[in-house]
């Protein structure tokens, strides 16, 4: 038995191992030969009969089958690689032909492309990858542009901060703020009151209340910078209301330092009724001149969301005098509603208070709403109106002429 074992080892070393080393199979054959020899040594008791021989033919068949599996595995890899290379060449040809093909495609995407059942499916898959790649490029380009804009804004902000930090500019701004605050403090003692009616919160949505508060903030800023500011009163103002929360958002810590009067009382409880005039576009009475002894009331609301006549009904219910701005008297009105924003009303009232000139005051009305001022004879106005109707309105000429005649019944007569 020992001689047979030695003979087997010599055969393995002399013939099989060089062949395995040449084909890269040494690591697979060494364990197999070791197990074969060990198994023979361990089974000496069972194989002690001299008549038993080793079946080398079966062992050779096992070795040949292992070699064939190894060769087949190595042969399959080049086939896969060749198929991927062929697919990439196909994509390159399609790209040169002008089809929608992505520039960069991964191996997983390429394998998914090869697994598509038909040519149309392959085209759709490549188009999907192409569009996806374009979206990524656009997103990256937008991010780069946004980053550049942010850097430019930071540079400009740093430059402006440097200019603001200059001692002269800081001294000038602080001095002007003190002057404006001094005027507002004087107006609280000697100024003419102007009331903002804050009782329309329930009739507006949250967004409309936000817009109203923004307009009031602009009005307060304009009033504070004027030569002779009003003493602003916020009447019917309730704490923790939507108005209150919006004002805190806009003013923050400066809300408690505003030089205005805020009260939850009604204006009829603070001022005598004979001095109050409610300004509303629905009033039948037209305001002719600005009265410095009267107290004007402005409804704090967005007129687009309010039904017609709400502020007029409120004024009549309280027994107050009403007035409307003479927009039709001084302006050749063309299109749009005759409602103005709160900051426009503030500009108009401040200009009337300082100059008593309606033409200068009504310049704050948006020019898109009127064609010009009524400062010509009625015949020339009629010619201008006819020209406007011919150029813009066409078939609506008669309708506009009737409206013009209704506005000017004494001066205008139809032929």
UniProtKB/TrEMBL annotation:
<dbReference type="GO" id="GO:0000049">
    <property type="term" value="F:tRNA binding"/>
</dbReference>
<dbReference type="InterPro" id="IPR007356">
    <property type="entry name" value="tRNA_m1G_MeTrfase_euk"/>
</dbReference>
<dbReference type="GO" id="GO:0032259">
    <property type="term" value="P:methylation"/>
</dbReference>
<feature type="region of interest" description="Disordered">
    <location>
        <begin position="137"/>
        <end position="160"/>
    </location>
</feature>
<keyword id="KW-0809">Transit peptide</keyword>
<feature type="domain" description="SAM-dependent MTase TRM10-type">
    <location>
        <begin position="180"/>
        <end position="372"/>
    </location>
</feature>
<dbReference type="InterPro" id="IPR025812">
    <property type="entry name" value="Trm10_C_MTase_dom"/>
</dbReference>
<dbReference type="GO" id="GO:0070131">
    <property type="term" value="P:positive regulation of mitochondrial translation"/>
</dbReference>
<dbReference type="GO" id="GO:0160106">
    <property type="term" value="F:tRNA (adenine(9)-N1)-methyltransferase activity"/>
</dbReference>
<keyword id="KW-0175">Coiled coil</keyword>
<dbReference type="InterPro" id="IPR038459">
    <property type="entry name" value="MT_TRM10-typ_sf"/>
</dbReference>
<feature type="compositionally biased region" description="Basic and acidic residues">
    <location>
        <begin position="141"/>
        <end position="160"/>
    </location>
</feature>
<dbReference type="GO" id="GO:0052905">
    <property type="term" value="F:tRNA (guanosine(9)-N1)-methyltransferase activity"/>
</dbReference>
<keyword id="KW-0489">Methyltransferase</keyword>
<dbReference type="GO" id="GO:0097745">
    <property type="term" value="P:mitochondrial tRNA 5'-end processing"/>
</dbReference>
<keyword id="KW-0949">S-adenosyl-L-methionine</keyword>
<protein>
    <recommendedName>
        <fullName>tRNA methyltransferase 10 homolog C</fullName>
        <ecNumber>2.1.1.218</ecNumber>
        <ecNumber>2.1.1.221</ecNumber>
    </recommendedName>
</protein>
<keyword id="KW-0496">Mitochondrion</keyword>
<dbReference type="GO" id="GO:0005654">
    <property type="term" value="C:nucleoplasm"/>
</dbReference>
<dbReference type="GO" id="GO:0005739">
    <property type="term" value="C:mitochondrion"/>
</dbReference>
<dbReference type="InterPro" id="IPR028564">
    <property type="entry name" value="MT_TRM10-typ"/>
</dbReference>
<keyword id="KW-0808">Transferase</keyword>
<keyword id="KW-0819">tRNA processing</keyword>
